[in-house]
Amino acid sequence: MPEAVVAHSKATRREWVGLAVIALPCMLYAMDLTVLNLAVPHLSADLKPTSAQLLWILDIYGFLVAGSLITMGTLGDRIGRRRLLLLGAVAFGVTSVIAAYSRSAGMLIAARALLGVAGATIAPSTLSLIRNMFLDQHQRTFAISVWVTSYSIGGAIGPLLGGVMLEHFWWGSVFLLAVPVMVLLLAVGPKLLPEYRDPNAKPIDLLSAVLSLASILLVIYGLKRAAEHGLGLAAAVSVAAGALIGIAFVRRQHRLEHPLIELELFRSRTFSAALIAYMLGTFAVFGAYVFIAQYLQLVLGLTPLKAGLWTLPSFAMFIAGSMIVPLLARRFPSTQLIGAGLVIAAVGLAVLTLLDTASPLAVIVTGSVIYSLGFTPVVILATDIIVGSAPVERAGSASAISETSSELGGALGIAVLGSIGMAVYRARMATAVPSGVPSDAGEIARGTLGGASAVADRLIAPIGTELLAAARDAFTQAFVVTAAVNALLVLATAIAATLTLRHFRNVRDASKPSAV
């Protein structure tokens, strides 16, 4: 179909109802990333996992999602995007039941791993379906904003809904939330969602799939370990091994007649620039959030529930911004909106540097609301550019690359900014531990704020109080420094993205009625 005709093909009521169906599994996917944290005390009492097993229970889902995205996106292009989504829904629903009734920590880890693989079908399948369902540029931008908003809603209501379930049922009930959603998707999906597959698709190269999975898993595991324990040998070896496997993966793609991902996509300056902007955006958001979560609980002393409630304004602003961006995109070029959004986000991050000069809770809420508003055009329009830059038959692969870059950006943000914050904290605590604190306890307190808080609880007053105050002050200074670094990085990204994408011409601009 000619491009001018495609640009003006309007979606019907069926496509809009189908979009609502697509939003359900996306919301559920985000919920599953957050809801389990509340259930940790309950499942720990029941299954009695070791500390290592508990970490794997929490982390394995995200690891397998990130590692499987590229394979699943390409698989959708080959076997059909609707078919992959429905197969993933079956696997997600069945595995959720297994997870809910797990009788050992090992069983729950295995179930969470399978949930991650099933969850990896959701983002590339749904985003590539949107690419097929909404051919008009304005409508597609709005559809992607709904898609993005569904993840935000899932992340916001996950802890709240999980808390309600845990008040009345056992810990496994949080997994059963997925079952009715997936049943609904299976019931209406075949009728409302179109099918699309690349008619010239070839079988997937299994070695490439293994290499991509291993590379991403090792890199993200290493980054996460570095964020939690510092850049030690294990973290460095894991990242280095992942990078080497990634190089082998890329070289294999060059040699294959039918590669797992089309490297030609990266030859597009627009595609690559939008991808980098999206990755750096998630870098900043995740890096900031990890400090905000700790500050609210360990410095201000809020309960996890109250801390979660104070993050709701930023979620609400992101959702509101997601509804505004499509309207602005009708009047202003995407590149201008992305650049302006990054500048606004940098302002919000800069507000966080005022923690030690103003009311801290007001600073956190204000700063997070501003940067959430700023990042909405980045997420929505960069995603739109990435998916729209790829041919229709490669939409699944492009969607998977987009989401993988987001996962990597988040892991990098936590690791890099976390390491900077840790260095500042340790430097401040090197001379701030009160003289009456035992040497072994002082060493723990110098490591992390959580360690200092635990040590302070065991010390008699006033030494324990003084130690906790010193640790909180050191963490606050670490937060301020990382917020400043984050703000400067986002501002630099705004400048680079604006200069790189200045020649990008929106499809909406290239397909005015006069061009038909």
Features:
single chain, 516 residues, mainly alpha, 22 helices, disordered N terminus, disordered C terminus
Category from helices, strands and their pairing: mainly alpha
Mean pLDDT: 80
- Categorize the overall geometry: globular
Tell me the strand percentage band: under 5%
Structural Rg: 23 Å
Order of helices and strands: HHHHHHHHHHHHHHHHHHHHHH
In short:
This protein has helices spanning 3-7, 13-34, 36-47, 51-79, 81-100, 105-119, 122-133, 137-168, 173-176, 178-192, 206-229, 233-255, 269-299, 304-310, 312-329, 334-351, 360-389, 395-429, 439-447, 449-458, 463-500, 507-510. With 516 residues, the protein is mostly helical.
Please characterize this protein's 3D structure.
It is a single chain. With 516 residues, this protein is mostly helical. The chain has 22 helices and no strands. It has helices at residues 3-7, 13-34, 36-47, 51-79, 81-100, 105-119, 122-133, 137-168, 173-176, 178-192, 206-229, 233-255, 269-299, 304-310, 312-329, 334-351, 360-389, 395-429, 439-447, 449-458, 463-500, 507-510. The longest helix has 38 residues, at 463-500. The model is unreliable at 1-8 and 507-516 (pLDDT under 50).
